[in-house]
Design brief:
Chain A: Keywords: Hydrogen ion transport, Ion transport, Transport. The complex is a heterodimer of chains A (359) and B (259). Chain A has helices spanning 2-22, 27-34, 39-45, 47-54, 63-84, 87-113, 118-124, 143-150, 157-161, 171-195, 203-227, 234-239, 250-257, 261-268, 275-280, 298-313, 321-346; strands spanning 281-282, 296-297. Chain A has 359 residues and is mainly α. The chains are: A mainly alpha (359), B alpha+beta (259). The interface between A and B is large, with 46 and 34 residues.
């Protein structure tokens, strides 16, 4: 019965997403890509998946063009899905765009702080995170203005209002705004997935709870590691950790007191599955090595885990989580292609296998 | 009247000059290798930062602020032998520390190879050579200028505080590619000076030999147009008899691309 009711509203979208998932690049595709000698060869190899977008790209082209064209496809596919979605799925997909909105807000206010051209900045914004009031963000000079003039009218307003503090917009505060918004976003998304009448008690709630919990833990660890040696105080840092995930509350408390990577290791060791992460990945190592067999970076280990979670989602039926998983897998595919393109362009073939592939 | 003893002395001097000339080539090649390595690592770390970008920001030329002003400049010192020494200067330091010159936008040249993003440092060539006696233009200034006096001017801050570590590493790589560039151009100037000295000394030796009537037959063998084994650099003689350094431009562009 569950499947019957699910399919009335969301079966078509789920079917389309499973089709999209089948067109994602597999290990053998990546293997072919890594054999390419030039970007022109790479473009040729990508024709089955990205032929339409890359057809009019004239040679020579920079690696950023490949990333931009692949993103174009992602946006096109997502918008098609969103147009088909109704009810809770539509709301679920809107939630997916909020993270892009947060990135765009941070990009725009950081750019404004550095007196960048607004038009130039708007071109750099992610299309999935575009909203009506975005260009007006440039007028805000402090956080109160940012909220009262612009964000109050946007879907991001609920994430913002409880965390409002009076401060000027400098690099530190922008970083705090970005991470506070993201924290509230994750918590709100988690709440939506677990309490919405259409989602509560379903596979979607269970899967999304795991995925968002992992995302929250990853953010907490990354914030801690990246904050060493910066102006971010421990008390400010603590406020940025999402109150969810496997690390919350003991792990995040330990993270908030951490002064060095070793303390971070101790904090995350309380979660069994994270214990091996530090052993696998060197902190801040430039050269990762998923495919190459060399030392992985911690970021690579996180991405690998995220992709495995996303892959696992497709083993379930009648769930919205596949949309989230497909989006993440597609984003990773774009990163992988860009990485391979960079390695080809820079003739660094020894590290070309560092992409992350789960199919 | 010239003597055999004078000739021997001049020939010894010539030999020493040639040895020092070859040492300079060695230094030149080492600097080229160092520069190539730093740029290659820099671009690679930038790619790594993009691969791990947490906020979907693409680091690189997309994010470059065109109004960026040069953070580091070049001090030029010309000594009595016409050998030019180039040193790195921190242009963000307050006036009382040194005499920071205004970066000339026309003269700025990007030495990291392309218009790549945040971590690129611009070198502004000082048009004014008269400040050669300022403290910042001492050779050790190059290393000191790698750390900015004013950390707020650091372009890494464009990307917020919590940016990927690989981005910082890429910036360090690019910044460390600057001293080899300074060394490279200084060495080239020194090589040019050595060429001139060798040429004039050879001329003197040739005249002295003619005067003493010794060993004139194999003169052409002793004075090759190009030093064998140094395919990247060759000495050619123009009509005025000055040495000109020709080096492979394509090698430069490859190094600039970082790979």
């Amino acid at each position: 019965m569950e499947g019957l009711f699910f399919n009335i509203h969301s079966g078509y979208v789920e079917g389309i997403v499973r089709g999209y998932r089948n067109s994602l690049l597999t290990s053998s595709n990546y293997s072919n890509l890594t054999q390419c000698e030039t970007l022109e060869d790479l473009k040729l190899q990508l024709t089955p998946s990205y032929g339409e977008q890359l057809a009019n790209v004239a040679s020579p082209f920079p690696t950023s063009t490949i990333a931009a064209k692949a993103t174009e496809k992602l946006v096109q596919d997502f918008r098609y899905l969103r147009a088909q979605a109704t009810g809770a799925l539509a709301k679920f997909m809107d939630f997916l765009t909020y993270s892009y909105m947060i990135d765009n807000v941070a990009l725009l206010i950081t750019g404004t702080l550095h007196e960048r051209d607004t038009k130039d900045l708007l071109e750099r914004c992610h299309p999935l995170g575009f909203f009506e009031g975005l260009p007006a963000l440039c007028v805000a000079s402090n956080i109160e203005e940012l909220y009262s003039i612009v964000l109050v009218e946007t879907p991001l307003a609920p994430f913002f209002k409880d965390n409002l503090r009076s401060a000027d917009l400098d690099e530190l505060n922008i970083e705090i705004v970005r991470n506070t918004l993201y924290k509230s976003y994750l918590e709100a998304f988690h709440e939506f997935c677990t309490t919405d009448p259409e989602l509560s008690g379903t596979a979607s709630a269970e899967l999304m709870s795991d995925i968002l919990g992992f995302e929250a833990d990853r953010r907490a660890i990354n914030i801690t590691l990246n904050s060493f040696g910066t102006e971010l105080s421990k008390s400010d840092r603590k406020k940025l950790y999402p109150e969810m995930g496997k690390l919350h509350p003991e792990g995040t408390l330990m993270l908030s007191r951490a002064d060095d990577p070793e303390a971070v290791r101790l904090a995350i060791e309380i979660v069994g599955e994270y214990r091996s992460f530090f052993d696998q990945g060197g902190i801040g190592q430039g050269g990762g090595g998923i495919g190459g067999g060399t030392q992985k970076s911690l970021e690579d280990v996180f991405y690998q885990k995220e992709m495995e979670l996303a892959k696992g989602t497709f083993t379930h039926h009648f769930t919205f989580a596949v949309v989230y998983a497909w989006l993440k897998l597609q984003e990773q595919e774009i990163r992988n292609i860009t990485w391979i393109a960079e390695c080809i362009a820079q003739n660094q073939k020894d590290r070309i296998g560092n992409y992350i592939s789960v199919f | 009247m010239a003597t055999q003893h004078e000739l021997d002395e001049l020939q010894d001097e010539l030999n020493l000059l040639i040895i020092s000339y070859l040492d300079l080539f060695d230094e030149y090649q080492a600097s080229r290798a160092e520069l190539s390595r730093a740029l290659s690592d820099g671009f690679f770390n930038l790619a790594q930062a993009n691969f791990n970008a947490p906020n979907r920001v693409r680091y690189g030329e997309d994010m470059y602020d065109n109004r960026m002003k040069a953070l580091r400049g070049v001090g030029i010192v010309v000594d009595e032998n016409d050998v030019t020494a180039y040193t790195l200067k921190d242009l963000t330091s307050p006036p009382e520390v040194g005499t920071p010159e205004k970066a000339d936008p026309e003269a700025t040249s990007n030495l990291d190879g392309s218009d790549l993003g945040s971590d690129k440092e611009k070198i502004s060539k000082s048009a004014d050579q008269g400040d050669s006696d300022t403290p910042n233009t001492k050779p050790e200034g190059s290393e000191a200028a790698l750390t900015l006096v004013n950390p707020k001017a650091d372009p890494l801050r464009w990307f917020g505080i919590l940016r990927p570590m690989a981005l910082g590493t890429a910036q360090t790589n690019f910044v460390h590619s600057l001293p080899p560039i300074m060394k490279l151009v200084s060495t080239l100037s020194d090589i040019e000076y050595h060429e001139k000295s060798i040429r004039s000394l050879r001329q003197t030796v040739r005249e002295l030999r003619k005067e003493l009537g010794v060993n004139l037959i194999d003169e052409s063998v002793e004075e090759p147009e190009t030093i064998p084994g140094l395919d990247k650099l060759s000495i050619s003689t123009d009509k005025a008899g000055d040495g000109i350094i020709d080096y492979d431009r394509s090698e430069d562009s490859r190094a600039a691309k970082g790979g």
